[in-house]
Amino acid sequence: MHAIRWRLILLSPEEEEEIAAQLAGPGWYAAVGNILAQEGPVNIISPDDWRYKWVENTLRRLERAIPILQREKDLEPKWLECGPDDIPIPPPAEYPLRPRPRASEYIRRFAELSCARTVSPAPHSIAGPPYSLILVDKPESSNAFSYGFGPDGGGGVVVFSGFLDEILSKHQEMSVENYPTQPPQSNSWWSSLFGAVFPSNPKPLQPTQCIPTEEQTSELAILLAHELSHLVLAHHLETLSSGSIIYPGVISIFTDVARALLFPVTMLFGPFLNDALASMGKVGSGEFSQIAEYCTSQAQEIEADIVSARLLAHAGFDPRHAVKFWEDRKETEQTAECSPAAAAKARYDDDHAGKVMRWMGSDTHPINVQRVAKLKEELERWERVRQQMREKLRAEQSRDSH
Question: Distance (Å, rounded) from C-alpha 61 to C-alpha 143?
């Protein structure tokens, strides 16, 4: 982990493997297709489209930086030598990215230690890359969202064309070449496999090849790195566990305890008061779940921003550009990090939970403001740690020379 935060995921390894098996391969596309189909017909951008290739190449470039998160300590000379004009490389994380060990690994360690044997660490790998990718032709939606968990494409990213249109319109220096005279007819596995799930309509002709600028690719990478961070941090599993197991279970326990303590009173008034308490418990469960999910989603977004900055730096993108990117992003349904159909409901739930949190005296700043502030703090911390380490090394060299 690159952020200090306790997480409780009440899913057994077998349950996690079952989820990963369901989403592996075509399963992820089917699951995402069901999500997108709630909004009506879905138009998918073909992998032959230059926009898809642009997004895919950027995504794969970021994926190649994921293993570096596990061995950042090996980069010590490199991150110390960064100058003011160089892309800042982060200092090694105090808690490197590591997959959660399985229970069988703990049992093996205990057995080896009890026999006074040397315990060799189990090999760690991040399950996931290469991740799946879908581009949805939806100009009115300017964002992306990640979904899933597990290897063999069990996790992936969905990008809406509105976001690509937005960043392409900012910089007009892009080179455009060769417009086709007829729309290409795709006979690939993509169209045969997902033609029924993602029916497509004829679309205006697109240029066969465009060369986006470095600034455009950088903005694309910032959003993709953020979504990748959600995947490598298993935020989907955390949300699934908390929403379906933890929060309902906690509320149910408290409701049952309250009803048991108040039973002598409710017994005098008959079953009506007892049923009323049960109904209040159900309503309170919904309110508590909204508040808990609101807080968890805020923590996850900030956590993903921090990890994405590391991904960007290791992939050769300047993470300082992410500050301006998120400052310019507005919190609307069109830019929500979910499917547009779910954005309106999520917006209402977040607004409602936010009002309750403010009534309880919690922070009143919008989530976007908090995210930018935390990201700035993280980048400033990188430079501060770098300067401290340089001063320490200079002091040690000076002491050795005397």
Answer: 20
- Name the token pair of 37: 């189909």
pTM of the predicted protein model: 0.74
Q: Which residues pair with 44 in a beta bridge?
A: 136
Tokens found for residue 95: 């808690």
DSSP 45-91: PPTTSHHHHHHHHHHHHHHTTGGGGG-GGGGHHHHHS--TTSPPPPP
Q: H helices within 141-213, ranges in order?
A: 161-170, 189-194
Distance CA 30, CA 25 (A): 9
Q: Virtual CA dihedral for 307, 143, 332, 30, nearest 10 degrees?
A: -100
Tokens of 21: 């098996």
Q: pLDDT band for position 297 (50/70/90)?
A: confident
In angstroms, rounded to a whole number, what is the distance separating the alpha carbons of residues 4 and 101? 18
To the nearest 10 degrees (0 to 180), the angle between helices 50-63 and 161-170 is: 90
- Cβ atoms of 271 and 343 within 8 Å: the answer is no
Most confident of 126-130, 335-339, 350-354, 362-366: 126-130
Q: Quote the CA–CA distance of 221 and 54 in Å, as a whole number.
A: 10
Give 71's contacts (C-beta < 8 A, 6+ positions apart): 96
Per DSSP, the residues of 354-401 read HHHHHHTT---S-HHHHHHHHHHHHHHHHHHHHHHHHHHHHHHHHHHH
CA 156, CA 59: separation in Å to the nearest integer? 10
